[in-house]
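pinned: reference chain
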Amino acid sequence: MKKRRKSSIIPVCAAILGLLSLLTIGLICFPYFVNLESDFTDKTKPHKSREAQTPEELLTEYIRLLNRHEYKKMYSLLQDDSKNTITEADFIIRNQNIYEGIEARNIRAEITGTTAEEPSDVNVSYKISFDSVAGSIQFENLARFTRTDTGEYALDWDDSQIFPELTSEGKVKVIVKKAKRGEIFDRNGILLAGEGVASSIGLVPGKMSEELANDIKKLAKLLKLSPEDINKKRKASWVRDDSLVPVKTIRKYEEADLLAQAPDSGTLETEKLKKALLKIPGVMISDVKVRYYPLGEKASHLTGYVQAITAEDLKKHPNEGYTSSSVIGRTGLESLYEKELKGQNGYDIVITDSEGAAKSTLASSPQENGKDIYLTIDSALQAKLYDQFKEDKSCSVAMNPFTGEVLALVSTPSFDSNDFILGISKDKWDLMNKDKAKPLYNRFRQVWCPGSSFKPVIAAIGLTEGAIDPEEDFGNVGLRWQKDSGWGNYFVTTLHSYDNVNLENALIHSDNIYFAKAALKIGAPKLEEGLSQLGFSETFPFDIRMSSSQYSNTKTIDTEIQLADTGYGQGQVLVNPLHLACLYSAFLNQGNILKPCLLYQEKPKTEMWLPDAFSRETAERIKNALIKTVDNSAGTAHAAHRKDIVLGAKTGTAEIKLSKSDTTGTELGWLAVFTADSQAEKPLLLVSMAEDVKLRGGSSYVIKKVNPVLDSYLSDLP
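pinned: its structure tokens
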């Protein structure tokens, strides 16, 4: 076989001489682009026989096959001498590993010239370009074709057909410059999700004892793995005697934690485990960087977690820079801000010699580290709320009522995102899924029956519609009432009897009967319209997708009883707690409802979601009534009263039962509380809900839980 020519640019004069030479042997020479999708993909067009194909057409076909990864058909275009130097299997593996390894796509070739040394040998020069994982690659090359004994042309192939500088001993290597994932911080720069260190438990096969099987069993028992899992890792194809084989990652504790006066149980258990592990021959413990969530279960429903990318993920996110070693945000903010956080890996595509030394760089792209995300969240408030409610099924949302900045989003019980990073066991996963308290269930994203916490909203709609005269005395009818006998055995009940049953006193005493009558005065059409204008049955405008609030299971309030129940937050009313907090913001902002925000800005720009939802007079009247609900000794929220700061609040106890006659249902306890002074040093609007408070004091239970949080946040107490 003749020695292959190196790739070069054919000078103009040589091209002219080549053209004249070709004309004398009946070949036509002209530069043209290879069309990758035309008649090759159209099976209805006639296909030329190999004998009739020119070298240019064969090169065109070769490039088309390459675009389609049809390496076996590419091999069929090679002449016999080339096939003697590389088998079909090796050819397929070689081309597949290189082209697909660098993610070559959109391969395009432009034939720039054709020359013939003799009638049987024709050289086709061409320019080739394509996209790769490291960006665009383009170069000039030369394809040599030889006429066979049958009169057909075939490609004289060697490795330089892939890249001019590539030899059969050389390799094409992709060097990944890994981007650092962005971190998530709270408003004060405190880390919520970022880089941490864990302990990697590994083993060195060559250092293990002769009692290998017993040692593997000991290791498996300590790490709560199966011996089969460990042996599978130990016997991987890449493992050598001196390899360090990672087996499991566990939490790392700081030495200071162990030296503390009273180390926590987790630290002591980890120390005991490590000592036992190091007694097994061949076991090594080393530090490894991992994604870390400092607040653990206190913010896991908010932060979410990342996991190793799967084959399914790679199919869903093609050409987005993910590799088989990437992680991807699976839930929470890690998923919500995945595009911003993930960054973009950089790549170098290099050709190496037989010794592995780089000869040349084909393409290079810089890595772009992920963007850091700063939230409006106050991690101290977040942690305090979790600590207070961690034994409950509950949720809490907090915001600055004058800027819309969301300060806390808490759901209890919870899980620890770090468990998913270190590798959660099947037993623990099954336990969490079977837990009746549903620790994986994100309660602050759901909708709940609001009970009496909804009464200020009904009051505001009634005043806006002119259906309620705030000074009108609805009359003291006792603790039980129905409109007429048409309601059958159904009565609206309330807990307190008092005189002068007007709007303010009804809010102070949380009078169900008053608000049932108020809803009837407003009427179903006006109430439906009013609630629709407040965002009910619509997508809530927030970064995190929240369930939509509703006033009915259908599009209408169908009966008088349902209408009356709606007036005091029962019936079929369901409200998202953050939505409810935003509605309360109107009472502090002259009737304007704020749009909640989650991304921190040094100088926050207050954005209105529903401007002029209520009049200034209406907002002020309800705000003052809610202040009296705290300050008045008869007020249902009086237990939240403080001497240092003026608060407004509304409690609520929602009955959850299967039917109106059900006496075994549970209750939800609510508290919506806010700092009334717009000049307060630390403005706060907090909405908390706890389930199953029926035998624990109803909404009073929630106040007891919230008061220490208010002490801590408003007074900067530990």
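why pinned: Confidence is low (pLDDT under 50) at residues 1-47. The longest helix spans residues 699-715.
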